[in-house]
Design a protein that fits this description.
about 260 residues; alpha/beta; seven-stranded parallel beta sheet
């Protein structure tokens, strides 16, 4: 059992928790908690660390999976060192990152038309995680995000995905205009959620064909040049004095409208 916070492995885990650079260089990320451990694909699990009391209290299913992977026991002090939560859950999974190419997100195994979420400069980890989870629930093909979007592998984002990070294909683009051009060439119609003149109400377009929704930064929305590259601009009408919706909420409304149309 690891009992010292000066242990080399503990220091490496602490770096993975707080440094995006460490996650990028190693190709690893941390997933804390029983749910994220149980849903982690075995082939992506690098290692597992379990707090001694959490191991004693583990249920049968958790113990059975632990028996199939490599894990180490750690003291409560050590686990608090590697956790970024106020109330640590006692199990930390080190997971290998999975890489997707943009073109791979266009292929739906069930034969349905592609439905993508494209995110520009999203900064809140909770929003990003919620969008990934919503994308899975609505049946989206995948999520594309710009490089300046918050790190999808940060512990807060991972927790917010509630396991969807393992199942929803996603890619980071260094060249959003180029990516949009690639999607358009593949027959994807791109819709920008933007409060601009001439925008259509979000439930008017036909989303049964391949489509993608552009969602912008929480405070500033989409950049003007990004909006200009969309095939259509759409808005979500609101009553009262509300000027805009939370970015994750807006993404959910658009994705589920597309899902509704595809059920008809």
């Amino acid at each position: 059992m690891i009992t010292s916070t000066a242990n080399k492995k503990v220091k490496e885990l602490a770096e993975l928790s707080v440094k995006a650079k460490a996650r990028a260089e190693t190709g690893l990320f941390l997933a804390e908690g029983r749910k994220l451990f149980m849903e982690a694909p075995p082939e992506q699990i690098e290692s597992v660390y379990v707090e001694e009391n959490a191991y004693r209290g583990a249920d049968t299913a958790m113990r059975e999976k632990l028996d199939r992977v490599s894990f180490e026991l750690v003291s409560g002090e050590v686990f608090r060192k590697i956790s970024d939560t106020m109330t640590p859950q006692g199990i930390m999974t080190v997971v290998r990152q999975k890489k997707y190419e943009t073109h791979a997100l266009l292929n739906k195994t069930d034969g349905r038309a592609a439905m993508l979420l494209i995110l520009e400069n999203i900064q809140d980890p909770g929003n990003l995680g919620t969008m990934l989870r919503t994308a899975e629930g609505a049946g989206a093909s995948g999520v594309i995000m710009t490089r300046d979007t918050v790190d999808i592998y940060s512990p807060k984002t991972i927790r917010s995905t509630m396991g969807s990070v393992y199942r929803v294909p996603f890619a980071v683009t260094e060249d959003l205009p180029g990516t949009l051009a690639e999607l358009r060439a593949a027959g994807v119609c791109i819709y920008a959620a933007a409060l601009v003149e001439g925008a259509r109400v979000y439930d008017e377009p036909d989303y049964r064909k391949p489509c993608a929704f552009l969602i912008g930064n929480e405070g500033n929305g989409l950049r003007a040049e990004t909006v200009a590259q969309a095939d259509s601009r759409i808005i979500i009408p609101m009553k009262g004095c509300v000027e805009s919706l939370n970015a994750a909420m807006a993404a959910g409304i658009l994705l589920y409208e597309a899902a509704r149309q595809r059920r008809v």
